[in-house]
Amino acid sequence: MELDVKSVDEAFETVTRNFQKEAALPGFRPGKAPKDMVLKKYGAEIRDEARRTLIGNHYREALKQNNIDPVSQPDIEEIQFEKGQNLIFSATVETRPEFELPQYKGLPAKLEAKQVTDADVNNAIDLLRGRHATYQAVDRELRLGDVAVIQYSGRSEGQPLTQFAPTAKGLTEQTGFWLELKPGEFIPGFCEQLVGARAGDKRVVQVEFPADFVSKDLQGRKAEYDVQVTEAKEKVLPEVNDEFAGKYGAANVEKMTIAVRESLENELKFSKSRSVRQQVVQQLLQTLNFDIPESVLAQETRNLVYDLVHQNTKRGVSKELIETQKDEIFAAASANARERVRLAFVVQRIAENEKIQVEQEDIVRQVRMVAAMNSIPEAEILKDLNRNQNGLNDMIRQALHEKTLRFLEQNAVVTETPPSA
Question: Are 207 and 187 in contact (CB under 8 A)?
Fold first, then answer.
């Protein structure tokens, strides 16, 4: 790109006058210093400001004239820039990928014809009872559903497990460990081998760590545990009465039951909605194949890596264990980022094609969803948006993305199938 010498000199003059108005030089009142003295002291800053102004304005004008929609900051290469000369520079940017939109209305989706049953409601209430359970010591053999308080030490090939997984100290040895006897709890197959034991009993438990176990170094490894049951406890659930209902803000059992049913129905509705969206999105992405900008992919990958590390840290996963899994975390984030970026470009094109616009209510809905997902007060998010324009722009993009996905869902052709067992 090239800009004539006249425009260059005019920019220098304009910037110099602006500096003159603000310059404070010894012996002169602000704004009264001679031009040559201002140029002598601030010449480099004036040149930089003129350069930024000219290149920025000419770059934006070039984008507009050539109908270019960049997705990254430009890589500017200055070829020639001095007062009294034409400005010559090049700008390299990544642009949105070009592709033909496939048919996106009327895409098929299948849903199981599920309904919330009385059994579902009872199971949910039992889960609520479990939050207020008490544990009573018993002098009998342990059964599934009981709690065993144990001490254990584990080994593999005659060596402590830390020999193979240095960060797995908690899996190698523990005392006073409470373990609810449920299939799949702790290490698959561990709990079942304690059924029938009593307080004071010792047992040798044989396990094989699953292929997807959280500690990569133990995946697929066979291990042996020396276990002593120090206490046997029975889980006692509270009675379902009006007092219990009051713990969850309900006036009585009937109102609590109604609230639980409504909650389950909302969960089922959300699950069905998510399933339809996933099916529609999968069909769209399968029919499209286009290259995506590397800078956008790199940024999205960084965002997902941060999210994965943050989530694992909140779950209590140690920094040491996260460090041992950094390659897997990056690989998972990279694959997921590619699909998310592709979907974002497709959704953006559909929104443009359908002239979908973000309204105030869409932003409010998006704020509520973000607040609920991250357990953050809505007022705090709104406060951040009011003082952060970039944050507001991101929220608008998220709201447009969500609204367009809702449009695709509403235009899908849904077929119900019999519920699975």
Answer: yes
What are the extents of the domains in the chain?
A: 2-92, 134-236, 261-417
- Which residues, 6+ apart, have CB-to-CB distance to 89 below 8 Å? 1, 55, 76, 77, 78, 79, 80, 81
- Predicted confidence (pLDDT) per residue in 105-147, tens digit: 999 999 999 999 999 999 999 999 999 999 999 999 999 999 9
Look up the pTM and report it: 0.69
Residue 95 three-state SS:
strand
Buried b (16+ CB within 10 A) or exposed e, 199-226: bebeeebebebeeebebebbeebebebe
Task: List pLDDT tens digits, range 370-388.
Answer: 888 777 888 888 888 877 7
Structure tokens at 379: 């007022």
Has residue 421 got a pLDDT over 70? no
Residue 404 · residue 350 · CB < 8 Å: yes
Q: What is the mean pLDDT of the chain?
A: 89
pLDDT (average), residues 210-217: 89
**Dihedral-angle region of residue 108 (phi above 0 means left; psi in -120 to 50 means alpha; beta otherwise):** beta
Question: Given this model, what pLDDT does residue 85 score?
Answer: 81
Q: How far apart are CA 389 and CA 391, in angstroms?
A: 5
Q: How far is CA 19 from CA 44, 83, 85, 118, 410, in A?
A: 12, 17, 22, 77, 58
- Tokens 């909605």 locate to 273
For the domain covering 134-236, report its CATH number: 3.10.50.40
> Helix 389-410 vs helix 253-287: angle between axes, to the nearest 10 degrees?
90
DSSP annotation of 248: T
CATH for 2-92, options being 3.30.70.1050, 3.40.50.300, 3.40.50.2000, 2.60.40.1930: 3.30.70.1050
Q: Give the DSSP per-residue string, 338-396.
A: HHHHHHHHHHHHHHHHTT----HHHHHHHHHHHHHHHT--HHHHHHHHHH-HHHHHHHH
Residue by residue, DSSP assigns 123-160 as HHHHHHHHTT-EEEE-SS---TT-EEEEEEEEEETTEE
> So what's the pLDDT on residue 392?
84
Q: How confident is the model at residue 327 (pLDDT cuts 50, 70, 90)?
A: confident
Its CATH class, for the domain covering 261-417, is mainly alpha
CA-based radius of gyration for the chain:
32
